[in-house]
Structure to design on (635 residues):
């Protein structure tokens, strides 16, 4: 159980990002702080004055987590990345990347330029940033042009050398006119290298030069010029705050670091997708005394990437690991493309690994017992289920449910759990298209057929195009399918899988007469499960989540207009009677639950019309409940 008061005491006085979760573990808010301890505590103080929106949000907070950073600027960029990835309910959504500009150096050109850019592209250029001040970026670009005299024109060189006269920048000594051949390619490239050295963090030379010019201008009573140099120094200092949170190369990579004590270890993994840090996860590990950090890290990588469906191009770690070449070879076979395990020694990559290590240390120090409990609730619970069913490994589970009112507006839900945790980005909703009336079996058959046919089509398309498997798309199949029901629902699923030539274990979640989970149906027999076990609790959570997701979708589709259009299908119920029914009952549930006598008492309704309304809602329901519906066992 997450104790908010206890967790508030553990908050560090460091910059970072905090992530608020509701009771369903959905991320509802992401924020940044220069001091996590001070900022997060404010939400739970009795004297808080947060405004109506955030007051409502605080009431829904069930737990929070946080990621420490080295500066408020890094926290700001990480906050932006996480908001775009998770789209929390109570965050104001950012529309694009315009808040965070980059400096772009077109090193792919023979005579490179230094440009202002809003987005990183996968081209041959080098990108620096993102930065929070576009004014500072423009100032620094202008400064590099003045100091290193690089071109800013769009001429294609060397093709256009000598075709036009040099521009104004040459005459004011801010460009060496490579367009006229006044500077060699080698000399120009040397100036570019100095700019790259500056952007890579060597600011001391320029800052010292600007400081000398500022004092000289001040001594000569030229205060306006001195102020300009002072402002340039401030812009350089803003740019000097290096960014680790967004990667310049725009690649997919993971960053893994281990913190360990005598008996326990915590592995922290940062997930960088398309150059942006979009999330993290940590894992508790039980270790033996004397285990080296290298061996622990090696063991973790093998276990983690044996289960995860996505393997990035690069994995950055804090030190060389055992069997590194062998693990790289294994990962390449799983990914289908080259995978490199790197140990960064300097620069932003090394600092990012250090940041992951700092987060792992904090988790190990403060949350070790909580992680142990969480591992039991998730990974431990999945292992219990796997052992109970005799399945070797379960990473991904998918559960399905059908929701309708007497068969009308039927919908299906698919919820996904990976490593015992809900993966909401993979949840899917299905509006039943092929089935008329209240037939849960046929509706489930439609949902499963559409889901797996779609997945097979995606797999075929990716094989043809030689693309990697997308993380979270339909082509990722489950290791176990959980059906909301017993024998009938399980056999429907097995029949669909057999027709598609798929072999995936299917397990039914059986409920008792009080609609509470009582056991599992697997391989033609009902298996009892200890109701106090974590495995049973996980099954119950999965079943409740599948039902909740289906019901929420169904409710979103029900409106007065849709109910009114449904009543149009009832013989003998015209506009006046439809209006009277809607006025009296306000919704479909009331009409469905009414008796013939109650319906006949409504204005403009007679007994014959009331009987037609009642039969419309109950005749097919009775057919659905007919116990004669039986499906043969199919393995």
């Amino acid at each position: 159980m997450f104790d908010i008061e206890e967790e508030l005491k553990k908050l560090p006085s460091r910059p970072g990002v905090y992530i608020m979760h509701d009771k369903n573990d959905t991320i509802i808010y992401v924020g940044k702080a220069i001091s996590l301890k001070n900022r997060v505590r404010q939400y739970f103080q009795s004297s808080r004055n947060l405004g109506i929106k955030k007051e409502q949000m605080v009431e829904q907070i069930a737990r929070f987590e946080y990621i420490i950073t080295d500066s408020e600027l890094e926290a700001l960029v990480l906050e932006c990345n996480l908001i775009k990835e998770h789209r929390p309910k109570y965050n104001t959504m950012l529309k694009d990347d315009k808040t965070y500009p980059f400096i772009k150096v077109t090193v792919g050109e023979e005579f490179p330029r230094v440009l202002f850019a809003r987005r990183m592209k996968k081209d041959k250029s080098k990108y620096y940033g993102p930065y929070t001040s576009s004014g500072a970026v423009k100032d620094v670009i202008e400064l590099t042009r003045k100091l290193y005299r690089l071109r800013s024109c769009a001429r294609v060189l060397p093709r256009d050398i000598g075709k036009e006269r040099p521009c104004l920048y040459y005459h004011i000594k801010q460009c060496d006119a490579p367009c006229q051949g006044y500077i060699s390619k080698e000399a120009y490239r040397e100036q570019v290298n100095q700019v790259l050295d500056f952007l890579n963090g060597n600011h001391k030379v320029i800052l010292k030069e600007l400081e000398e010019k500022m004092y000289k201008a001040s001594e000569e009573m030229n205060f306006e010029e001195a102020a300009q140099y002072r402002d340039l120094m401030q812009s350089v200092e803003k740019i000097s705050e290096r960014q680790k949170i967004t990667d310049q190369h725009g690649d997919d990579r993971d960053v893994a670091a281990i913190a360990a004590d005598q008996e326990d270890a915590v592995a922290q993994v940062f997930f960088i997708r398309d150059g942006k840090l979009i999330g993290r996860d940590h894992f508790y590990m039980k270790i033996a005394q004397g285990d080296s950090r290298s061996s622990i890290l090696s063991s973790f990588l093998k276990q983690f990437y044996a289960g995860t469906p996505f393997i990035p191009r690069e994995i950055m770690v804090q030190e060389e690991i055992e069997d590194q070449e062998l693990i790289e070879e294994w990962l390449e076979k799983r990914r289908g493309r080259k995978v490199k395990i790197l140990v960064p020694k300097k620069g932003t990559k090394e600092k990012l690994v250090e940041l992951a290590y700092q987060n792992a240390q904090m988790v190990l120090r403060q949350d070790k017992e909580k992680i142990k409990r969480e591992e039991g609730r998730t990974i431990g619970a999945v292992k219990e289920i796997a052992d109970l069913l005799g399945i070797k490994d379960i990473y991904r589970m998918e559960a399905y449910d059908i929701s309708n009112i007497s068969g009308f507006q039927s919908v299906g839900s698919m919820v996904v759990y990976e490593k015992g945790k809900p993966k909401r980005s993979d949840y899917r909703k299905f509006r039943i298209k092929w089935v008329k009336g209240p037939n849960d079996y046929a509706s489930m058959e439609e949902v499963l057929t559409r889901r797996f046919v779609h997945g097979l089509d995606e797999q075929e398309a990716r094989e043809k195009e030689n693309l990697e498997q997308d993380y979270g798309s339909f082509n990722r199949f489950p290791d176990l399918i959980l059906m909301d029901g017993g024998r009938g629902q399980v056999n429907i699923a097995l029949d669909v899988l057999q027709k598609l030539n798929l072999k995936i274990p299917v397990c039914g979640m059986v409920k008792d007469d009080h609609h509470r989970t009582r056991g599992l149906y697997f391989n033609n027999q009902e298996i009892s499960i200890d109701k106090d076990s974590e495995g049973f609790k996980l099954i119950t959570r999965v079943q409740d989540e599948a039902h909740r997701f289906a019901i929420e979708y169904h409710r979103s589709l029900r409106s007065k207009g849709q109910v009114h259009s449904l009543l149009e299908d009832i013989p003998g119920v015209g506009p006046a009677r439809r209006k009277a029914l809607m006025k009296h009952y306000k919704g479909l549930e009331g009409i469905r639950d009414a008796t013939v006598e109650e319906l006949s008492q409504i204005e403009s309704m007679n007994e014959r019309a009331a009987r037609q309304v009642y039969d419309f809602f109950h005749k097919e329901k009775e057919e659905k409940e007919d116990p004669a519906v039986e499906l043969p066992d199919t393995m």
